[in-house]
What we know:
- This protein is mainly α.
- It has one domain.
- 74% of the residues lie in helices and 0% in strands.
- The protein contains 4 helices and no strands.
- The chain has helices at residues 2-9, 13-19, 26-39, 42-70.
- Helix 1 crosses helix 3.
- It is globular and about 30 Å long.
Amino acid sequence: xxxxxxxxxxxxxxxxxxxxxxxxxxxxxxxxxxxxxxxxxxxxxxxxxxxxxxxxxxxxxxxxxxxxxxxxxxxxxx
Length: 78
């Protein structure tokens, strides 16, 4: 799982931006879910599940903002 997380973290900025758009943002929910499972963080797993179901509608705005401003996706814990 660490390879998947690292590959997502190393994506080019434009790809991260595209993946943060509405409808496609489900990818970042899956990323949070995988990262939570890898770190054994229940809160991050829950955030990933919520992001998968509601990210396409509302939460994509947060991902878009953080990619534009910080070139990374906000997670609850490192």
